[in-house]
Amino acid sequence: MDTAHIRNFSIIAHIDHGKSTLADRLIEYTGALSAREMENQVLDQMELERERGITIKAQAVRLEYKAQNGEEYMLNLIDTPGHVDFTYEVSRSLAACEGALLVVDATQGIEAQTLANVYLALEHDLEIIVVINKIDLPSADPEKVKHEIEEVIGLDASDAILVSAKTGLGIPDVLEAIVRKIPPPRTNPAEPLRALIFDSHFDPYKGVIAYVRIMDGSIRPGMKVKTMASDKVFEVTDVGVFRPALRNVDELGPGQVGFLAASVKNVKDTRVGDTITDATRPAAQPLTGYRKITPMVFCGLYTVDSVDYEALRDALEKLQLNDASLVFEPETSVALGFGFRCGFLGLLHMDVIKERLEREYDLSLITTAPNVIYKVYKTDGEVLRIDNPAHLPSPQEIEHVEEPYVKATVIVPNEFVGAVMELSQEKRGEYKDMKYLDTTRVMLTYHLPLSEIIYDYFDRLKSSTRGYASLDYELTDYQESSLVKLDILLNGEPVDALSVIVHRDRAQYRGRLLVEKLRGIIPRQMFEIPVQAAIGNKVVARETVRAMRKDVLAKCYGGDITRKRKLLEKQKEGKKRMKQVGSVEIPQEAFMAVLKID
Amino acid sequence: MIDTLGVYIHIPFCRKKCFYCDFPSYAGLETIFADYAAALCREIDRRSGLFSACRVDTVFFGGGTPTLLPVKTLASILETLQRRFPVLSDAEISIEGNPGTIDRETLRALRSAGFNRISIGVQSFSDRVLQAVGRIHTGRQAVQAVLAAQAAGFNNISIDLMYGLPGQTLQDVSSSLQQAVDLPVSHVSVYGLKVEEETPLEAALAAGRVTLPEEDDELAMYELATQFLPDHGYLRYEISNYAQSGKECRHNLKYWRYQPYIGFGAAACSFFGDERLTNTTDVREYIAKVNADKSPVAMKERIEKDTAIAEYVFLALRTAEGIRFAEFVRRFHVDFPSYYTEEIETLLQQQLIYATPDGIGLTLLGMRFGNRVFAAFLPKKDK
């Protein structure tokens, strides 16, 4: 197919604005799947995505569409996640497109991730088609939303398409607009092959399946190709398209979106963002990739049972095949033994990975409280990057410590401005800007420590604005802060995995909350357990878990034996979920308690 | 292989349910006593063929309140059993009784019918405490019942006591223990109250109508019993059981020694070979099944070797004799110390067990935290 009849586009939206539903309707309308095959959230194949109603991984699908002008078009839709953690996924999907549908909920208006995603799309020079969704709802106010889009983003919203992805209203208009407004791919037929890898997954039979957008040239099975960054040569075994299931084709031509397999065993050899070229006639210049993924949140992952350590490594390696943003390296904890320090894009990402490890790999895990990377300037001139509180040098060795800050954008109804300001101030935020989106909605900008965001800023923001606030943030810089390490001692022994780095002014308060919480979580044992919080040698808070008095079945006669055995089995099962640290048994959730205190 | 056998006979009737009880026993079924007794005899009859090679050395009539049935009926059940099974002449033949249901005549009749051990459910000698848990008798009746049993010729009398009851004080427990040892009692069982699900007691606690003793007080009651009774010549031969020398309950020891027994009646449990059978707990269903010559068994469980080992361990550890390695090898062909090396080491460190060259047993601390020890020896299952 000639490139004039190809359109490559993404859908961008704030979470819950109806992106996946719109994708479903487009697929259905163009007949890529029959009604029988159709199910909700077709592109969200992961069980977790469906359960949580979110998109985690980008997916692609090729649609065939006969436009009103009578001509056949090939539309490649690349679905993108809507959550702030997965901005990088959005970014790489956008790099493979010429246009984007900006979906805004007609009842909600612009939200923080709407903005973040629009800016990303503009960065990539994409043609943006404004789609106002959920207009079937009684509270829909498309005019107000159009006004917001024009005022806040500066996009012309006069020809915004009004749709209801739920009912299918307006879907033909969306397809027409894609054909009319989004430019066809620009390719240079004289150039050798250049294809951008925008995603990948691992198939146990075919190796790495690289998702590619062909910029120039074309690609066929049997071809020798080379990855330009990793400089590896492979022979292509399969090329194909997404319908949305993978379907092999003979060739992927210029401007097209599809996949290729080349018996690549190591996902690192075909990194997302790399350029694939013809090994026999390589291109002179690789394509510009896009911004590198940098994990911002780190935590320790340990297995409850230490014999599962190898299984955890295997599982992490497998997940990494499909999620290049996941990083991990071995670490050791005095309390928890051998585990991994893992880096994530954000808390949701961390949650998702943890849940997948437990579900898909049947592992029972302990997660330590998430951390950011601190820059520690030592008195001897050395600079350390610390992602684990246990590794913070002693105070005498530290000249000063810097922590990462973000620019946080909060969009909220104006009645909650006071609450957001109060919260942001409490979280050491510095006020930057306030803008009215319309008469009732306000956009606030703050400069905030990332550690506060991952601690409880988002939860508190949601609860203090009755769920109305939306948040987006991006890393900006590092700033010096007065930080200390707060240690937790159980039965007099420090438990390294429970240490946290906190601001000096909040340390005592946090310590008090923490020991209270732990007192409630740690089950009573045969002896009394003091729970203490300490800064250096100074104990700042103390609670006591009282000793259990007795734990024995008073009666056991002939008729009871089976039932009593089952009771004991249950008791033992419960113990298996505990980690023995010194003489104290600590339940898994204690290690996360450090994170969520209220 | 089976040579001696215990027999349990369940009488699932009470005059009134106690507030804490979740046992398969029912009040208000007086009209079916006769049918039940007939069904019991029929079940004994029917199943006797399988055990013709065994000699019965213990018999236990438990409940419920067996003494709620007319003595004649009890005697005829025992007689049926003796006719169908070779019950040894020196067999221990126990019956449970509630102080509110036994007088001197009843006791005499039971004694002459062949019962030689009686276990009286006293629970407490304090009327205030008895009332609080819905017992049908007074402390005074309990004393009279024990004396009447002695007068009737029982020289093997056991009483049950409870601690941790609503409104009970350490003083109550102390005085009950004193009264127990002052009476002609050769065996005492002391149970801590456990609040079972869906009992009136649970509801009363949830509604705040009654309160239980503080944990520390409850522990003190327990500690008192564990010291007081041995000091007065009752040795603690099982976690909750104390007896004068030679008066240990031979029938109950069979449970803890994992020896075979057969149970008759609704909810009764049989254990022999590698099988555990439990009859239906529904009394009417039991009667109907037996009368229709159908099996009243509601649950049949095959005990795999690793489960058997675990059960053996947690039952044997309840007793003062604990686990004898030699006996363990004989039964399971497994060397206990090497099979459980890690567990033993950990538990020794925690001072929950003691070890000798021949075996292991619970320490005093281990008896308090028995579940921790028992759980440690459960099968090491891998998913």
Describe the structure.
- The complex is a heterodimer of chains A (598) and B (383).
- Chain A is α+β, with helices and mostly antiparallel strands and 598 residues long.
- Chain A contains 13 helices and 31 strands.
- With 383 residues, chain B is an alpha/beta fold.
- Chain B folds into two domains: 4-255, Aldolase class I (TIM Barrel); 305-375, Orthogonal Bundle (Arc Repressor Mutant, subunit A), CATH 1.10.10.
- Chain B is 41% helix and 23% strand.
- Chain B contains 16 helices and 17 strands.
- In chain B, the strands form four sheets. A nine-stranded mixed beta sheet of chain B has the order 9-10-8-7-6-5-4-1-11, with helices on both faces.
- In chain B, helix 6 links the parallel strand 7 and strand 8 (187-192).
- In chain B, helix 2 (71-84) runs parallel beside helix 3.
- At the A-B interface, helix 12 of A face helix 8, helix 9, helix 11, helix 15 and helix 16 of B.
Short note summarizing the structure:
The complex is a heterodimer of chains A (598) and B (383). Chain A is built from 13 helices and 31 strands.
How would you summarize the topology of this molecule?
The complex is a heterodimer of chains A (598) and B (383).
Chain A: E1 6-13, H1 19-30, H2 47-52, E2 59-66, E3 72-79, H3 87-94, E4 99-105, H4 112-123, E5 127-133, H5 142-153, E6 161-162, H6 171-181, E7 194-203, E8 207-216, E9 224-227, E10 232-235, E11 238-242, E12 246-248, E13 257-261, E14 275-278, E15 297-303, H7 309-322, E16 327-333, E17 337-344, H8 347-360, E18 365-367, E19 374-378, E20 383-386, E21 398-413, H9 417-426, E22 430-436, E23 441-449, H10 450-464, E24 470-481, E25 483-490, E26 493-494, E27 500-503, H11 504-521, E28 529-535, E29 538-545, H12 561-576, E30 578-581, E31 584-587, H13 588-593
Parallel strand pairs in A: 1-3, 1-4, 4-5, 5-6
Antiparallel strand pairs in A: 2-3, 7-8, 7-14, 8-13, 9-10, 9-14, 11-12, 11-13, 15-17, 15-18, 16-17, 19-20, 19-21, 21-23, 21-24, 22-23, 25-26, 25-27, 25-28, 28-29, 30-31
Helix pairs in contact in A: 3-4, 9-10
Chain B: E1 4-11, E2 13-14, E3 26-27, H1 33-47, E4 55-63, H2 71-84, E5 87-97, H3 104-113, E6 117-123, H4 127-132, H5 139-151, E7 157-163, H6 170-182, E8 187-192, H7 200-206, H8 215-231, E9 235-238, E10 241-243, H9 250-256, E11 261-264, E12 269-272, E13 275-279, H10 283-291, E14 297-302, H11 305-316, E15 323-324, H12 325-332, H13 336-339, H14 341-349, E16 353-355, E17 359-362, H15 364-368, H16 370-376
Parallel strand pairs in B: 1-4, 1-11, 2-3, 4-5, 5-6, 6-7, 7-8
Antiparallel strand pairs in B: 8-10, 9-10, 12-13, 13-14, 15-17, 16-17
